[in-house]
Amino acid sequence: MRGMERFKARARSFRASQTSAEAKLWQALRNRRLARWKFRRQHPIGRYIVDFVTLDGKLVVEVDGVTHAEPNEIERDIIRSQFLESCGFLVVRVSNSDVYENLDGALEMIETSLRFD
């Protein structure tokens, strides 16, 4: 249990130090603003802390900065996505630039992803 408490504390610290792109997207997702879906931010799933998740919709939204284009980060993202998918989640990735330059398009893509069955 002690390890789990440290993990939860780490998730809380991530919420307190979110990126500006995450903060902007959170404003659009919080309080059921996107098609009435309940999203959580910096939520632990297994050994990972995801940027955003709707548990009912089984959708994880990851906000990726430029470092995610590096080969080692691409490999980590693949492994992370495979794990989350094995837990029954669909994983979608939104770039920082999409959040800043095309928030409506990013939200539309997220909402469309929630309609999978």
From TrEMBL:
Pfam families: DUF559
Domain of life the protein comes from: Bacteria
InterPro entries per UniProt: DUF559 (IPR007569), Endonuclease_DUF559_bact (IPR047216), Restrct_endonuc-II-like (IPR011335)
DUF559 domain ranges (all copies): 7-114
Protein name: DUF559 domain-containing protein
Annotated source species: Bradyrhizobium macuxiense
Source lineage: Bacteria, Pseudomonadati, Pseudomonadota, Alphaproteobacteria, Hyphomicrobiales
